[in-house]
Amino acid sequence: MKLSGTYKLNVKKEIVWQALNNPNILKQCVPGCESFEKESDTIFTVSATNQIGPMNATFSGTVTLSNIQKNQSYTIKGEGQSSVGFANGSADVKLTEENGSTTLRYEVNVNVGGKIAQLGSRLIGGVAKKMSDYFFGRFSDVISPVKKVEDTGEIVEEKRVKEVKSNFMSKYFYLALVTLILLLVVIFYFVSR
Fold this sequence. Notes:
The protein is α+β, with helices and mostly antiparallel strands. The chain has a single domain (2-162), classed as START domain (Alpha-D-Glucose-1,6-Bisphosphate, Chain A, domain 4), CATH 3.30.530. Helices cover 32% and strands 44% of the residues. The chain has 4 helices and 9 strands. The protein has helices spanning 13-20, 23-29, 121-143, 168-191, and strands at 2-9, 33-38, 43-52, 55-69, 73-82, 85-98, 101-113, 146-149, 155-158. The strands form 2 sheets. It has a 7-stranded antiparallel β-sheet, covered by helices on one side. Strand 8 and strand 9 (155-158) form a beta hairpin. It starts with a strand and ends with a helix. Mean pLDDT is 76; it is low at 166-171.
């Protein structure tokens, strides 16, 4: 599946380019990222946990940078394996600058297989869109935050994306709570007889 988007950043493209090659910044942008280690200038090992439909999956794999044209464009490829399947994809990232502002354009291709592929293309497409929007939106928030002036005159940062959090634990917490309540009802019923 193919996804695309653009972000306007109020910084020069050299600054955006440096950030696109900084593992500490990229780690902040990968949803559910647990580790992002640099192996070479173009290869990184990554581990991330995300919820995909009813499954919580930890993917471990590599991120590779290729087709590098300094301060202009590159391709970022990721491959990951999990107990519920695999995912791989690539994003072609292009930078253009006009009047001191940089436009970041991206086109993403995503492929999945294994159990997660059985969830259906609409669900997978929604998750892929959410994750790519989060990655590039978070990147934009880190590099060039949008500042807004409140009615009080206070300047605040406005986020382009909300933080992606897995609700894996909260789902099990509610399941345990419901089970406990049902168990108490059954015990109360038999004790009161």
